Inverse folding.
């Protein structure tokens, strides 16, 4: 199978089953990157940081970066298109019925089941990437300070990214 077909299949699958937005699909993308041998986990962790700090949705940015790693510009275009395709089709179909079905008890039950799964997917991605990205005391301190600054004071992520870059220059 050609790399472009594999990219399309992988990212259309990620897009199809990636409930919960960008952070929730990180576990799917990480698993696929490992399975396909497209890049090291260290490079993947770096791509998450880049995807986080560039404009746009992290899921689309990740697909674009991974696609570029595999097949340059055509790979980036294929992976990006593939990851958004299921969501676009699903949203068009759902938009026709959603507002009529949202208050239905079954719909609320489905969302009640999906929300905890999304939290678990995000936590799994954080744990997996955290083991690679945070490997020393300075990294642990930066991660913990970031969590506190976001949770307690809702500091804007741009300031956190800029601060982490400065800390990286000073300590690494």
């Amino acid at each position: 199978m050609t790399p472009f077909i594999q990219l399309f299949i992988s990212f259309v699958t990620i897009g199809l089953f990636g409930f919960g937005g960008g952070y929730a699909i990180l576990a799917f993308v990480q698993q696929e990157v490992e399975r396909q041998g497209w890049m090291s986990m260290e490079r993947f962790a770096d791509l998450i940081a880049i995807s986080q700090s560039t404009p746009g949705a992290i899921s689309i940015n990740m697909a674009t970066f991974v696609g570029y790693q595999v097949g340059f510009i055509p790979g980036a275009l294929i992976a990006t298109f593939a990851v958004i395709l299921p969501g676009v089709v699903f949203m068009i179909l759902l938009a026709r019925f959603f507002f009529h079905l949202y208050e239905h008890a079954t719909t609320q039950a489905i969302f009640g089941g999906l929300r905890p799964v999304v939290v678990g997917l995000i936590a799994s991605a954080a744990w997996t990437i955290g083991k690679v990205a945070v490997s020393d005391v300075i990294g642990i301190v930066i991660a913990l300070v970031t969590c506190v600054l976001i949770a307690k004071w809702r500091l804007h992520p741009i300031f956190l990214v800029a601060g982490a870059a400065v800390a990286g220059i000073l300590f690494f």
Notes: The radius of gyration is 18 Å. DSSP finds seven helices and no strands in the chain. The chain has two domains: 3-133, 134-172. The chain has a mean pLDDT of 90.
